[in-house]
């Protein structure tokens, strides 16, 4: 029974939806700004689950698959299709409510916010090639090494820029520290990019067979770890320490923000051994939840008197 529940939560992408909400909450706490409305967080959750399930909601898979996740979708085909319709209706309803409730504020949204609200969804749409081929046949998912950076960019935009734009729309508030906002965006972009590269390593053999030139296919698993993952993580740690010292963050805040990078580095070295699909879904994606929780915890030491949400 427990295995079925775990498979349902992780294979059906509900955990990914939770991650999007958790990382958005981290943004609010680290920037010391109010939380968004429950409608926004529910819309973010449903949209994330719907988007990540698109790739598995196509025609029914006729044959038994050796891939546990593919097999789960084959066995639960009807549920997945029904769930996608339900999630789509929920997303449209919540988006309609949000639009009507804040129509005037949306019309007067600053150009910079409009830019982020346009570029991020466009990258997400192009990633799956969701636009009709008569308009554009470009698919960012097929770009190999660029793929992970696109994923990281979309995630950082959704959990850093979207909540801030929504806060301006809902409450008319702006971020008091744009430098901190920009740094958090870049930090999340790099962290999510490394996470995506690690996740690509599970598809090493399949990607090699279809000649999708991801880092793992181009360089091999070991070289990807030592020459891509480790340098990116070390750069992230150095930038974290540099910014923390510049801003005068205390030791507890620094340690909490360093913890996810240390965990990610530890898991990166373990990638030299093959793991099950659930390892990638639970442990690697779980690092994003660890990052969110550590970021929230560290924010209480950075803003001990004012971070009351």
Taking the sheet with the most strands, its summary is: none
- The sequence of SSEs as H and E is HHHHHHHHHHHHHH
- Give the overall shape: globular
The average pLDDT score comes to 83
Please report the distance between the alpha carbons of the first and last residues: 37 Å
Provide the gyration radius in Å: 20 Å
CATH class (first level) name? Mainly Alpha
**What structural class do helix, strand and pairing data support?**
mainly alpha
Helix % is: over 70%
Uncertain stretches of 5 or more adjacent residues: none
Question: What is the CATH architecture descriptor?
Answer: Orthogonal Bundle
Please tally the β strands and state the result. 0
User: What is the fold named in CATH at topology level?
Assistant: Farnesyl Diphosphate Synthase
Beta-strand level of the residues, as a percent range?
under 5%
Continuous helix count: 14
Overall tally of structural domains? 1
């Amino acid at each position: 029974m427990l295995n079925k529940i775990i498979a349902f939560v992780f294979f059906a992408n509900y955990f990914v939806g939770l991650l999007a909400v958790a990382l958005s909450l981290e943004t609010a706490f680290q920037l010391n700004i109010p939380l968004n409305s429950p409608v926004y967080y529910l819309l973010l959750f449903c949209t994330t689950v719907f988007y990540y399930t698109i790739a598995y909601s196509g025609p029914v898979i006729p044959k038994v698959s050796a891939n546990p996740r593919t097999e789960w979708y084959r066995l639960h085909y009807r549920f997945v299709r029904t769930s996608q319709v339900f999630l789509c209706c929920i997303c449209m309803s919540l988006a309609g409510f949000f639009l009507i409730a804040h129509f005037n504020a949306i019309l007067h949204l600053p150009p910079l916010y409009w830019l982020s609200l346009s570029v991020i969804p466009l990258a997400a749409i192009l990633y799956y090639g969701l636009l009709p081929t008569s308009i554009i046949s470009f698919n960012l998912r097929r770009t190999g090494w660029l793929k992970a950076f696109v994923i990281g960019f979309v995630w950082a935009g959704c959990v850093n820029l979207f909540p801030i734009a929504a806060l301006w729309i809902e409450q008319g508030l702006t971020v008091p520290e744009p430098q901190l906002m920009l740094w958090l965006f870049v930090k999340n972009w790099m962290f999510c990019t490394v996470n995506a590269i690690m996740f690509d390593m599970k598809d090493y053999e399949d990607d090699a067979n279809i000649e999708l030139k991801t880092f793992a296919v181009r360089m091999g698993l070991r070289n990807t770890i030592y020459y891509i993952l480790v340098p990116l993580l070390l750069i992230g740690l150095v930038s974290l320490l540099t910014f923390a010292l510049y801003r005068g963050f205390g030791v507890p805040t620094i340690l909490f923000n360093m913890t996810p990078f240390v965990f990610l580095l530890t898991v990166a070295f373990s990638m030299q051994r093959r793991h099950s699909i659930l390892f990638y879904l639970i442990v690697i994606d779980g690092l994003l939840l660890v990052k969110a929780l550590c970021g929230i915890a560290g924010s209480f030491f950075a803003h001990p008197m004012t971070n009351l949400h």
